[in-house]
Design brief:
By secondary structure, the chain is α/β, with parallel strands linked by helices. The chain is 47% helix and 10% strand.
Length: 694
Amino acid sequence: MENKKNMFDMSPRKKGDKPNPFRFNLYWMYGLIFVMLIALYMTNDTAGSKDLDWTQFQKYVKENTFKDITVYNQKRMAEATVKADKVATVFQDMDPSKIGPSPKVYVKIPSADKFSDFYDKAVEENQIDTQLRFEEGEDLFWSFLVSVGPFVLIILIWFFLMRRMSGGAGPGGGGVFSVGKAKAQLFDKDNEHKVTFKDVAGLAGAKQEVEEIVSFLKNPEKYTELGGKIPKGALLVGPPGTGKTLLAKAVAGEANVPFFSLSGSDFVEMFVGVGASRVRDLFRQAKEKSPCIVFIDEIDAVGRARGRNASMNSNDERENTLNQLLTEMDGFGSNSGVIILAATNRADILDKALLRAGRFDRQIHVELPDLNERKEIFGVHLRPIKIDETVDTDFLARQTPGFSGADIANVCNEAALIAARNGKKFVQKVDFMNAVDRIVGGLEKRTKITTAEERRSIAIHEAGHATLSWMLEHANPLVKVTIVPRGKALGAAWYLPEERQITTKEQLLDEMCATLGGRAAEELFLGKISTGASNDLEKVTKQAYAMVVYFGMSEKLPNLNYYDSTGQEWGFTKPYSEETAKLIDNEVQRIINEQYERAKRILSEQAEGHAKLANVLLENEVIYTEDVEHIFGKRPWISRSQEILEAQEKEKALEQEKEKEKEEKEPTTPDTQADNSGQSDNGSATETGQQDPA
């Protein structure tokens, strides 16, 4: 039985089909309807109408010829209905059979005001009974649109819907039915603006693992000969801004295979079954282009663990999408040649079935860059920037601890903007420091009005921080202190945080003591406290609670950890009793009070130096490490980063010495050994590789 073609089918004709000259086209219907509407409008019953000039019209008005007159202000035109007994007088040159029941005449008037004056005069002089009314009137074009526009709009909407449903319009085709199609962007080897591994600085471990995937796609025989299989999937895990998406872009640029990129939220839709349909379509496209890579960014949007708080946060559609994703990644079907890359910063909430071997075989951790990695990242982002000799990447890397790759890129861009704002030809070291200050502390607000007493209070507060950070061994080294308002803060102090792998109790206590130095200085040297220490107190309180609850550093609650690693944040109940909660509060209070008294004791001992430091702050508004060193002397302890740099320099020096020793020693060859064996027995020893001068 032959399939009947739809007469409304607007899909393009396939090759080999015979042209049909009488094939029905839907456009014919649209054109016919449009012509009918125009004809209907143009053939409107206008019989019994006549145009008059202004003089004739005045004559007829005075003769009381019209029953009523309508004046249209906008069109400057008047419409008059002729009385039944006056029709023969006005339409004497027309056939009476063509004159309608209410014949009308039209006339162009000078203006509405002049017509009104004329009408009042005619009524007064000729006692006419013609009724008069004024209307704004509509333009002929707008009248046409009002009458025809709704029909045209309906036709256009119908035409649009038919096109969408037939798949003839819109990106990707499919129309209404494309709601279940995957929205992945395809990058192939011919794509411009490629990102390569050269553009990815740092991330040595992560790059090594993804380079193995790229190597397999380029040379699979190297691995398959030994019976090895490439991992089916790799999950990039790390904090925001560390370069997960950039690493995936580099894989796309290096692999020279089709690369599908999409977000986890692209699967989410309000319609039931759409997410699962998009997953199926994605893998269908990937299989057609295999070998290829599929990258799903922010996979936690669709891969959240199932069954967690089912009664409160259930989403069957999301779970169905996840089930389909699990099936496609490692089901009965074969996905050979399709490698899945995914990125997330919330790996703790992902479903365990998604993380098992066979789906995501590897979890590649992309952590915040360390000192050497930050130096490499600065080298990448400084390439397009014009810098002078004052810029030192080692110094910049030390000044930006805890910065991600995105933060470093922002610092470089902000420094360039600051230099351009100041009319400089090159970006200098001071611009980078201002950029770091701008990002960390906020914009300077020199317009904020402060009194002399307030400035002195702020200077004493900040000098307290600086004094204690200099006198405590494990406190973060001071970099800069200012009393110029920044952001929401009235003053700010910058320190060089130590990038420790482990932190001892003594180090935490020293940091707390230095943080409380501002409030302690206010109480000691001013005799009153202010609200300026609220941020310090918040930081100290959180740190003290972490020491007691998470790290087990309390005397009365030793070796206990109440941290919930599952990410559920204890739910509705805490894992300890009310008595333990009171004990925790008491221990936190004790730790903070002890460090506060310790801060006051140290400041009392260094009162003279603190006063000098506060005076320098009041005069210059900014102090640096050199100023503090001039007052208190050189700090007897070196920072951890400085210790690491010195160790690296020693290692480099040792390597250079070893290379020099190797270069000085000539390699021993068989010829020289034979010469040495043939020497006379004169008892003289010769160096290895040297010939006897005799």
